[in-house]
Amino acid sequence: MNNEYLPKRAVIEGIRDETFDVKTFTLRLKDKAGALKYKPGQFMILSLPGYGEAPFTFSSCPAKDGRFQISVKKIGSLTQAMHELGKNDAVGVRGPYGNSFPLDEMKNKDILFVAGGIGMAPLRSAIQHVFKNRKDYGKVEIIYGARTPQDMVYKEEIETWRNVPDTDIQLTVDMPDNAWGGACGVVCVLFPKIKLSPKNTITILCGPPVMIKFAIKDILKLGFKERSIYASLERYMKCGIGKCGHCYIKGKYVCVDGPNFSYAQMKELGVES
Amino acid sequence: MKKMFITRDNLAALVKGLKNACDEFIAPKKGHLDDIIFEDTKAGGGELLEYDGNSIVSPRAFLLPQTEPLFEIKSAKASVFLPIRDNKERIFYGVRPCDIKALVIMRSFFLGEPVDGPYKDRLERSTFIALACGKSCSNNAFCCEMGAGPAAKEGFDLQLTAIKRGYIVDIGSNKGSRIVKGNKRLFSRPTPADEKEASQALKRLARGAKRIEYKKLAGIMKEDKVKESVWKDIGLRCVMCSGCITLCPTCSCFSVADRLNGDKGIRMRYCDGCPYAGFTRMAGGSAPFPRHQDHIRRFFEHKLNVDVERYGTPSCVGCARCIETCPGNISIKKVIDTILVENE
């Protein structure tokens, strides 16, 4: 029997504290011959025996050595337990599941990334991929908003992105501190600064549902087309293969048909985020 | 389809032989409340070769159990997992045509890519002997209106239709054919009069049943033309007891949980479903569908619209188990009728 539910063993090779409640884990399959062959935007399901399973989008772009990263925000029982783990501890993983970001469609186009909070994790995988293949893509603009400066993930890495050619980065926080030099407010406050032309741009959003809902509305007002805007949807899920039913929306399963949907598709499904 | 004949005595002999050839013989038995319950009668016996009505719980429970282990956790700390395999050969006897149709839909769902291994394993080791209906099983059932009764068209290995001197036997698969060939002396050819008697009995039962225009119904739902008041009314009645999704022969949603005893244990899955508010709620509390009426609405849209698009047939088979168990008096039949009448 081929039991898709049986996880593979993976080992934690590195842990990095991103914020007070987000850690990035570097994982590799115990069986080093096997690797999860994934594309940016896809996700995997992490098993923590005793706590069950939860889906996480890969936060790093695929690497030759089979290492991959996920960034985990402490929010429920499984993620809290995950935060207690240390280097060399084992977990279960299975996947990859779902569709990727529209990587082919993005080629030779300008790309606008809009991230809110931990929503930066899936986008980081795509951003790393784009920078790795820089000549295949046009200009890149990254708009990232977080609650406070302390809630921003990948701070040092983001600073290095500023040095990549044809790349513009705008940051904002809801609640600034004295040291904050960037913008203040939700991501939408940065939209007037978008320099990319709506004609030749693919927009990729990931963040809390309320951000996605309002950010898409504002991006549409700037003249961007419904089919050129993609959002990564977040749903509760238990299987990753379209069987358990949790992530179902109007006959589609976010785990199989998504998690990345164009705004045109989202409208057909009757969801705003 | 090839038809055979078997007498009541020979059927009893056939069942005796089949019971020896399988690990579990899932058959109807009289429950202590005088109702029908499917259970494994291989050891205990007491199966009914013929019965009126249908079982309280559908045979789904043996293929997608209320809880089942998905695999063994050999060490939680070290994340070591071992597969578990259900190798049991099961024969299902006396399954009603509505439940056979449900199994056809469940097969398409669970065996469609990506395949659900545990379900496939069980299904492929199962034999289904259907028993066509001789009487209407309840005032609420509407299988004939849904095209799921009184006899199954496909999805069985053998199907029995009772006549005065025994049963007409339809052979529906190679598995069924092998059973007949292996027990040749128990079967004979039906006479034309036998066949006529069986077909007339089935026709009599289906007489007057007005086929539900399920394609029209699906179209109305797809275009979102169902009045909000219908869903609101259902939302107010539903008490989240989950009776409907537990008894429905085509409900398939589940959740997963670990059961550990020290460092060892199992990961199990258990039936779960859309009426529960927590079914779509995520860690942190965010819920994409906060209104209760939208949870339960999904039950109807999935069965009456989405599966029509996906499989060409609604996945409600009209067994009426959900209607009879609902403490809030929700009737899928009345919902269907209301939607069709309001959109005439």
The main β sheet of chain B shows up as: 8 strands, mixed
Helix content of chain A: 10-25%
Envelope shape of chain B: globular
Order of helices and strands of chain B: EHEEHEEEHHEEEHEHHHHEEHHH
Class per helix and strand makeup of chain B? alpha+beta
Arithmetic mean of pLDDT of chain B: 95
Q: What does the radius of gyration of chain A come to?
A: 18 Å
Radius of gyration of chain B, taken over Cα atoms and rounded to an integer in Å:
22 Å
Number of strands of chain B: 12
> Which class best fits the helix and strand makeup of chain A?
alpha/beta
Cα distance, first to last residue of chain A? 37 Å
Question: Count the strands of chain A?
Answer: 15
* Main beta-sheet annotation of chain A: 7 strands, mixed
- Please report which band the strand proportion of chain B falls in: under 5%, 5-15%, 15-25%, 25-35%, 35-45% or over 45%: 15-25%
Binned, the helix content of chain B reads 25-40%
Task: Give the number of helices of chain B.
Answer: 12
- Strand order within the widest sheet of chain B? 3-2-6-7-8-9-1-10
Specify the oligomeric state: heterodimer
* Strand residue content of chain A: 25-35%
Overall 3D form of chain A: globular
